[in-house]
Amino acid sequence: MSETSKAHKRQAPRKLRFGIFVCSTSRYQAYKDGKTVEDVSGELISELVCKAGHELVSHGLLPDDQQRIRSALKEALDSENIDVIVFSGGTGISPKDVTIEAVEPLLEKLLPGFGELFRKLSYEQIGSAAILTRASAGVARGKAVFCIPGSPNAVKLCFEKLILPEAAHILKHSRE
């Protein structure tokens, strides 16, 4: 890591407040029907965030619906209690996967390196199927926003290798 990056990270916020949204129509419908919903990825995100010394402020479950996702993002952007917003799920290539399409129009700046690095790291784990993987990140109103796949392996990879090491650094620059 360069000396400049080290200096920037020293100036970055230490404790971040996360808002997490799991996008899954099937889980959302089961929840609405009063059924027990297993949220392995959401629980893993919560565990990783707290273990890193940060705070989970909000944890929501959304259907794969652009308007609902966009509304959740707007609400999180308006919140003074959230620094980092993560959408998990709905990033694939099927017609119902609309998370990235819902989120990106509201971002002020995109961070294409996030998706590029995620696919590189994913390729090392799963091979050529990584080309089907979509992930996105950017900033809006001084907050870091991430759209990541919903599988537990992808969540672990994104958080351990990219989000947790760089979110504070991203915030530092987005708030200058």
General description of the model:
The protein has one domain (14-174): MoaB/Mog-like domain (Molybdenum Cofactor Biosythetic Enzyme, Chain A). The chain contains seven helices and six strands, in the order H-E-H-H-E-H-E-H-E-H-E-E-H. The protein has helices at 3-11, 25-32, 40-51, 66-78, 99-103, 112-126, 152-174, and strands spanning 17-23, 55-62, 84-88, 109-110, 136-140, 143-148. A six-stranded mixed sheet has the order 2-1-3-6-5-4, sandwiched between helices. Strand 5 (136-140) and strand 6 form a beta hairpin.
Keywords:
176 residues, alpha/beta, Molybdenum Cofactor Biosythetic Enzyme, Chain A, 6-stranded mixed beta sheet, 48% helix, 19% strand, globular
As for the CATH topology, it is: Molybdenum Cofactor Biosythetic Enzyme, Chain A
Note the overall shape. globular
Number of domains: 1
Question: Biggest sheet, in brief?
Answer: 6 strands, mixed
Structural class: alpha/beta
Spatial order of strands in the largest sheet: 2-1-3-6-5-4
CATH architecture: 3-Layer(aba) Sandwich
Spell out the CATH superfamily: MoaB/Mog-like domain
In terms of DSSP E residues, the strand content is: 15-25%
Q: What is the CA-atom radius of gyration, in angstroms?
A: 15 Å
Total helical elements? 7
Q: Give helix and strand order, one letter per element, not per position.
A: HEHHEHEHEHEEH
What is the number of E strands?
6
Return the average pLDDT rounded to an integer: 94
Unreliable residue runs: none
What is the straight-line distance between the termini?
21 Å
| Portion of residues within helices | 40-55%
Reading off the top of the CATH hierarchy, the class is best stated as Alpha Beta
